[in-house]
Amino acid sequence: MSEIAKFIDDLQKSSVTARCNHCNNSSPLSKYLLFDGTKDFPDPVQNIIDQYETILKEKHTDLDKQVIRSDEGAEKKAIEVGFGKIIEKIIHLHKDFNIPLEDCRFLAEPLDVIVFNGSSQNNVDHITFMEIKTGAARLNKHQRMIRDAVKDGSVLVEKL
Fold first, then answer.
1. 0.85 exceeded by the pTM?
2. Under a CB-based contact definition with an 8 Å cutoff, are residues 129 and 109 in contact?
3. Per the count of CB atoms within 10 A, which of 16, 17, 53, 92 is most buried?
4. CA dist 148 to 36, 88, 141, 143, 155, Å?
5. What pLDDT does residue 35 have?
6. What is d(CA 72, CA 66) in angstroms, rounded to the nearest whole number?
7. How far apart are alpha carbons 120 and 35 in whole angstroms?
């Protein structure tokens, strides 16, 4: 019997206990399967290792699938955002955009267009703050703040 094997045998026959750092319970070492880690694992230990390796492989496969879906989603979103940025720059030039070009001022940020309705006729009857969105796009935080300020009547005209 090797020195390590004898030590393990002595521990299992002793009244030595071990305390779990997680649950703080103590148990005698004789309840546990002690083994020499420098040699092949005993069958019960190898079975547990195999089970965990299988679980790890499954989780790795699931993670790979999630990464692929995430990449596909990010690519689609990037295309949509790029398309939206192009559209918002040129939409007021489109023939079916029923607002005279002379009434429009393109800003890009934080809103896309300010329309001075009637400016081309020398009669501005109202001003429209326009944000152009495609697909399921929504207003961002700053755009919502501007919308809310307009709704609350917190808009001023100042002359410098």
1. no
2. no
3. 92
4. 70, 21, 11, 9, 10
5. 87
6. 10
7. 89
Tell me the C-alpha distance between 119 and 114, whole Å: 11
Please, is 3 exposed, middle or buried when counting C-beta atoms within 10 Å of its C-beta (0-12, 13-18, 19+)?
exposed
Q: Which helix (H) or strand (E) is 53 found in, with range?
A: helix 43-90
Supply the DSSP string of 95-154, one letter for each residue. Answer: TT--S-GGGEEE--SSSSEEEEETGGGT---EEEEE----TT----HHHHHHHHHHHTT-
Q: Report how far residue 92's alpha carbon sits from residue 106's, in angstroms, rounded to the nearest whole number.
A: 9
For residue 74, CA distances in Å to 78, 81, 141 come to 6, 10, 21
Residue 113, beta-bridge partner list: 106, 130
pLDDT tens for each residue of 84-143? 777 777 776 777 778 888 888 888 788 888 889 998 899 999 999 888 877 777 888 999
Task: Name the 3-class secondary structure at 155.
Answer: coil
What pLDDT is attached to residue 92? 67
What's the average model confidence in pLDDT over 60-78? 81
Separation of CA 3 from chain center: 54
Nearest to 130 by CA among 120, 116, 119: 116
